[in-house]
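Lesson 9: reading folded outputs for more than one chain in a single document. The general rule is that every protein is listed as its sequence immediately followed by its structure tokens, and records are never interleaved. Here is the first one.
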Amino acid sequence: MRLRIITPLVVVVDEDINSLSAEDDSGRFGILGRHAPFLTALAVSIVSWRTTDAERFCALRGGVMTVGKASTIDIATREAVTGDDLATLDSDVLAQFRSDADDERTQHVEAMRLQFNAIRHMVSRLNAGANAGEFR
């Protein structure tokens, strides 16, 4: 099988592998050779794979994984960090990715709150103008 992990700026991994383990919202799963075509959204997690002589790891900031008919596995992600030390990736990198995702969610909620307040204010001004007879 061929594994490619791609971010918007760089191809992080492009190598032949024997097996892969990844995680989506339903849990952890594995991919072996001749797997059926498959598409899933990956969680912020660590993907691991085996080659003939090593096991490797990559921390992902979410993403999309496709398994093609020709035994190709493509992972598109916003950010990826490879490493051979699972403990370091898990404790440092993955924790940072999760923190960043939480911060982005908080910022998104705050932006939505500001937009709703602005809309509410505009609607109240329009209603006040309509009640005063300005808009006929």
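And here is the second record, again sequence then tokens.
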Amino acid sequence: MSLFSLRCRFLVTSLATACLVTAISGTAQAQVRPATPPVYPPPAPMASDTVQANQVGQRQEFAVPSVVGQGPSKGIVAHLEGLADFKIDSEIRDKEPVTKANTTVTKNRRAFIKGYIPAWNNPHLKVILGFNYDREEFQFQDPDKSSFYRNLEDKGLKTLGAQLAVIRPVDEVHWYIARVKGELNGDYTSSELNVSDYLKMSGEFIYGWKRSPYLAWGVGAQIGYTFGRQSIYPVILYNHTFNQRWGVESLFPARVSVRRNVNPKTLLFGGYTVDGMNYNIKLREPLANGLQTLIIRETELKLRLRLEREIYDFLWFGLEGGYRYNVNFNAVDAASNERTLPQLFSGSRNRLVTNNLGTVPYVSVEIFLVPPRKFLNKTAGGR
């Protein structure tokens, strides 16, 4: 074999070896290089939309009407409210001609205690039992100006009630609330209580949508005494947290409030509420027409500012002030509750006493209990 042939064979062998080494090296590098981009853990979940802190971070499938930023749910509430002196002008139609009277109300004080017990607290179903006891009293500068004033003077107008509320998430967006409530309203005592004379029933149903942890709204209807006498009216629930500081909470037309989150322990509210009361009373002295029982229907609009502040973990207080505008404060014959169909549509009533009350400032203070953080954290750890 010639020298030229040996050199050609060596060159071909060297090139083949180099190509093989390059191919093996390329294959090794291809095996080391990731075939897909790296996968990272999913981001931490946002705060959930439930009223319980032990469910923060769960999926939104457990949708309820509360939103991020609302204050803690209340367990037991004690409330005391007082008003400044105000004028009262009355027309009494218990005889002909109509008599008129006026004086100053020197005391109109209210107090109540409420409690809410979670009988069933499941992400898919929440059942809450509630109770309340309210008391209202009047004193007049000159009660002798009218038998109506004398009949109300220092009379304890009481409300004893119980309710059952159900909050039911349907899916990740839809939910509904159903509530029924019974109350005994009037000047009864334990020795002379006749349930049928004083029982008042009310209820509501709202169907809603949860668009995000910060927005929930719903529509429905209520039957109750918010506007003095029992009536059915539509309602719109709208809860919206706009950012870390501002939000709105409303159940229109009964109440609308703008919320300011100062910090996790301090909340401010501004807005209005419409409150209605309905009392059955027995008169100490009959009216001129001989009537011995009346139904007092009261409706008022309050423009209010409210502060809620944590005192210690599970203990909060509320301070509220504003102006009360009286819509109506009238007395009717108890028999007028059973109106005929033409009367129902015409709006006529057997109104015996019509009162005009002056607009007056008011102030109230509350102490209420909320679920303690340690309890909620412990519950969350056990899930």
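What the second record shows: The chain has one domain: 60-381.
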